[in-house]
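Re-run with default settings, no changes from the original entry. Doing this only to confirm the output is reproducible before filing.
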Amino acid sequence: MQARRDKARDLLQRGWQPHMAQPIYDPEHALVLCRQHNYTPGLVLLYDKKRLHKEVLAVHMAAQDYEGLIAACIQYGDAASGGEPQLWADALEYLCKQPGDCSEPVSQVLQHIEAKRVLPPLVVLQTLATNNQLKVSLVKDYVAHQLQAENAEVSKDRETIARLQQETAATKAEAIKLKTQPHVFQNSRCAATGQSLELPVVHFLCGHSFNLRSLGENDRECPLCAAEFKRVLDIRRNMRAGALKPDEFFTQLDASADGFAVVAEHFGRGLMNMTAQSMASQGATL
């Protein structure tokens, strides 16, 4: 019997090789035959070829093949390679609904979910809570790992906030200084050519000085800082344009697994500070 099954799998593989868009046999008829004879390897092979990954999981679930289920999630559930992370959620929900002690396969699934950050911790805990036979140590370890990761991210964010606050304060102080105090230019050489400065000379508040003949017709902006200044202006323009699209905000919020990140991003663009009047005036400007 096993020899016949192995031969059937070999026929299915040879009839639908990787370079072939379609098999030389009817795949739907092959699926019917595999279902009639409860031939799991054939079903998995055919569903894999048809890229029906959820159906592959369903085959392993029906056979209560936990190892095959986890292996399928590893193969098809990696978002970095174009997979479907939702498969991990389906596998965890299935395992938590099984009677008896499923701590070992649940632990393996949790390890992959934690490593890949597939699901929010709250969703994972809500799913685990549906099974009252899981060991407390399993849930405890998962929560402890999540808290450690969150604390590390909070510490990193606080360091970033402190650095940005210092940079912002320094920038504001420099801006006030430029507006209220005279600026002494002590450059002796042209920033473009390196030659000695000779009248007429153009000084820019960025600190660069040029001989007028080195600037040509463009004497309104520093040629060394113009690209960076343009980049900053483009960023501000794009942020304002993004703030004028509330519909895009709600679309991203509905589709994202991390709604807080979406809110934080649009908050940084100034969406929450926009009034109807400011949106109308900026829309006309853009």
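The chain has a mean pLDDT of 81. The chain has 14 helices and two strands.
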